[in-house]
């Protein structure tokens, strides 16, 4: 795979984001920009990066080191599980589990990774739910949060 192929893939992804984000409408107006601004801005940035890769020229890329493809596939599976269990388990538990898996995939020790995962789940919940007033699912923790 070279840079040009990655650039074309980025352009296709940017087009998908534009198509998806263009029709987003909030049921009520709660901010002047609306929900479509983020995916459209993200699509613009990805498209600009993709164009840069397409026109810059292609460089050969080294093959992944042994075991990297398995770690990448594990990461994709963990992200899919995170999305699947997010509502049921809730933000804190699903984020902590996802952080634990990612930490172990990147070679972290069990104790440090577990402590970091729990702190990340709780800390991000407090920051978003309590600090920024973004409603996040409590899941099986229910009224404890």
From TrEMBL:
Transmembrane segments: 36-55, 76-103, 109-128
Pfam families assigned to the protein according to its UniProt record, in alphabetical order: TctB (PF07331)
DUF1468 domain ranges (all copies): 6-137
Keyword terms, alphabetized: Membrane, Transmembrane, Transmembrane helix
Keyword Iron found: no
Designated name of the protein: DUF1468 domain-containing protein
Organism: Orrella marina
């Amino acid at each position: 795979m070279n840079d040009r192929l990655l650039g074309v893939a980025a352009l296709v992804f940017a087009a998908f984001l534009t198509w998806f984000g263009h029709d987003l409408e909030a049921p009520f107006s709660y901010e002047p920009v609306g929900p479509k601004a983020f995916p459209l801005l993200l699509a613009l940035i990805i498209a600009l990066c993709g164009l840069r890769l397409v026109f810059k020229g292609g460089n050969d890329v080294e093959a992944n080191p042994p075991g990297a493809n398995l770690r990448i596939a594990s990461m994709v599976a963990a992200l899919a599980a995170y999305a699947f269990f997010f509502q049921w388990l809730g933000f804190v538990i699903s984020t902590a589990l996802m952080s634990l898996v990612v930490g172990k995939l990147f070679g972290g020790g069990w104790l440090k990774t577990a402590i970091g995962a729990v702190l990340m789940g709780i800390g991000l919940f407090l920051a978003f739910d309590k600090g920024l007033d973004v409603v996040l699912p409590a899941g099986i923790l229910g009224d404890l949060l």
